[in-house]
Known about the structure:
The structure is a homodimer. The first copy, chain A, is mainly α. Chain A is about 75% helix and about 0% strand. Chain A has a single domain, classed as Tetracycline Repressor, domain 2, CATH 1.10.357.10. Chain A is built from 9 helices and no strands. In chain A, helix 1 crosses helix 4, helix 2 packs across helix 3 and helix 5 (about 80-95) runs parallel beside helix 8. The interface of A and B includes residues 102, 105 and 160 of A.
Amino acid sequence: MENLRQSPDTLLPKLAAHVLEHGLAGASLRPLAKAAGTSDRMLIYHFKSKDGLVTALLEHVAGMYSQALEMAWPTEPAATRRECAQRLLAIGRAPMFAPFLRLWWEIVAGAAKGDAAYRASAAAMMDSQLAWFEAHLPPDDPDPKAGARLVALAVEGALMMDALGLGEVGEAGLAALEG
Amino acid sequence: MENLRQSPDTLLPKLAAHVLEHGLAGASLRPLAKAAGTSDRMLIYHFKSKDGLVTALLEHVAGMYSQALEMAWPTEPAATRRECAQRLLAIGRAPMFAPFLRLWWEIVAGAAKGDAAYRASAAAMMDSQLAWFEAHLPPDDPDPKAGARLVALAVEGALMMDALGLGEVGEAGLAALEG
DNA sequence: GAAGCTATGTAGCAAGTGCTACAAAAATGG
DNA sequence: CCATTTTTGTAGCACTTGCTACATAGCTTC
């Protein structure tokens, strides 16, 4: 009647769902286990240690993030870098991305502290994002690679302002982008 | 021979020093107490609860940050927004700011999770920063307020890239700023 | 100096942490 | 069908968490 056999592959989606909702930093084995329909005992069994779990989880979430970005793929290209950045901000503000962004800032904090697993996950997610940004620049952009990086800085900055409750600052900043 | 009387005011600097070095998220009472030369018992006595401690600590750190920014006040103004942003990135990369930035991303993560104390601290620190940015724009900037916001987004974005180990992305992005 | 408030030390509690020892069930291979 | 390996359950350990009860010391005020 239930899941007979569990494995990392079947567990990770449920674990990721729990972490997206409740955060990664404060996640401990027993709540994670309950959310995934198993026991702390089995989490350690499958992932060897909590570090192993977290590493696998970060990898999985990075994958989910790439997929979510691809699914949000829209429409015709923007006319200017500014408009492009503004659209990307709007996408980042969509409710379905909110859990990702909460988790994203946790990952950034972990990476800033020097943790290798967090860095790897952050780099993977940032790679997706840069590529995505590059693909959404105006087609006549003189230097798409540099432009994507500039747009990335601005959009990430604006999303950070959002996280602080200063969304207007982000909007005003993006509005001042050249274009 | 030692500190005879302790109070929140005498404790906060030592607590802040410990937190800047070891992080705030994982800081528990007993290590904090040892770092401040007192006991967990007394921390609760002075701050009523751990939440009270954290709130006071965040307020204190926000004040320290404003002071640190004022001390880093430099030199002649930049000629362009781009140059301004690049200088600010260089300042943010100075070793003395590294502990602040590690803590900063922790605070952003806390604010993103919705914690009011973190939000308040983050807003205070961001206000200092925006004012500081505005004061360092080229004197002939057409719209200093909007310019400061744009520069803030870009510099914060670049500092985030630094935290992820992608400093070059930040540099490339800033180099693409208009000016 | 007695009374009373403030500051501090000692001990400990209930809950939660990651993880392990032991053992049984369940699948697998001969 | 038996032997072996893989997967799971039950208890529990040693430790840390925030916080409290209780007692004591020290300063202040009359």
